[in-house]
Amino acid sequence: MSTLRTTMLLAAMTALFMGVGFLIGGTGGMMIAFLVAAGTNLFSYWNADKMVLSMNRAVEVNAKNAPEFHAIVEALAKQAGLPMPKTYLIDNPQPNAFATGRNPENAAVAASTGLLERLSHEEVAAVMAHELAHIQHRDTLTMTIVATLAGAISMLGNFAFFFGGSRDNNNPFGFVGVLVAMLVAPFAAMIVQMAVSRTREYEADRRGAEIVGNPLWLASALDKIARGAERIRNPDAERNPATAHLFIINPLHGERMDSLFSTHPNTDNRIAALQAMARDMAGLQPAPRQAPTPEPIEELPADAEQGPWGKAARPTQPTKPAKPKANPWGRNPTGPKGPWS
């Protein structure tokens, strides 16, 4: 069923791409658009994961230079019945993560150093379980190809005026067709892209919670990541906004998470769904939802244990904010330091 749905989605995006070509250049433009769409799909299938990782300057890590992070992903992949994906780290203070790859056998997960430094061990595990759920559902290929086609459609729309203004082309709709290609097609592609992303985020939240065994860990992680994304800029994501929907939380600075045109569902709604799931798993009656208690993410006590390997214990006496550490794991007593140390 998932394969059929993916095939239908890609066919719809290709048809939209061909429609834009027809509005711009008639039958000839439609055939050219079909060839471009086929080439784009083929290129995305083999190379989109490498492009996304390169855009975010992700560095591959392993059991030697990131033993604890690698062990988390390895244990979760085994729990989910998936092959071990490649693991990457992004040297960025904004807490976030994404998955990519054309299939479970050729997949990768990436987390930012900010995620490892600011979330607990359980929360990091929940986030990576969410990303593994995307891999298991084969969302990574679908969303990457949809993003590529949506970008190509927008590009055609931007150049429609120049391509469609000649009297020599075979455009049956004239300037009206050009205007439709310029205004409506990019908007339609954006709507399809957002609908795909929003639906799959809810599904990955549920499956990720099942893999890790506790929905509340992911609910807490989403709250922290959302507040971090609002306060901390991600320059690489800002330069490549077409990849924003791949992240667990929209990485674009100041993006309204409840916007009609957001690439992600409302974070509070995702948290509420996870809390309801936790009540169902515990066999409890529904209770009024309480919003997570905000925690200052940029003012951690100097002697508090940070990152996924500590308990994030708070001292009884307030202290000065801790300085950023060069080691991206917060602390790493079991192995060599990370690649940016």
Overall mean pLDDT: 75
Q: Characterize the main sheet.
A: 4 strands, mixed
Counting DSSP E segments of at least 2 residues, the number of strands comes to 4
Structural class designation:
mainly alpha
Q: How many H/I helical runs?
A: 10
Q: How would you describe this protein?
A:
The C terminus is likely disordered. Strand 3 and strand 4 form a beta hairpin. The protein has a four-stranded mixed β-sheet, with helices on both faces. By secondary structure, the chain is mainly alpha-helical. It contains ten helices and four strands.
Break the fold down into its secondary structure elements and pairings.
Blueprint: H1 2-55, E1 58-61, H2 67-80, E2 86-90, E3 97-101, E4 107-112, H3 113-118, H4 121-136, H5 139-158, H6 160-164, H7 174-212, H8 215-231, H9 235-239, H10 267-282
Parallel strand pairs: 2-4
Antiparallel strand pairs: 1-2, 3-4
Question: What's this entry about, in short?
Answer:
With 341 residues, this protein is mostly helical.
Features:
globular; single chain; mainly alpha; 4 strands
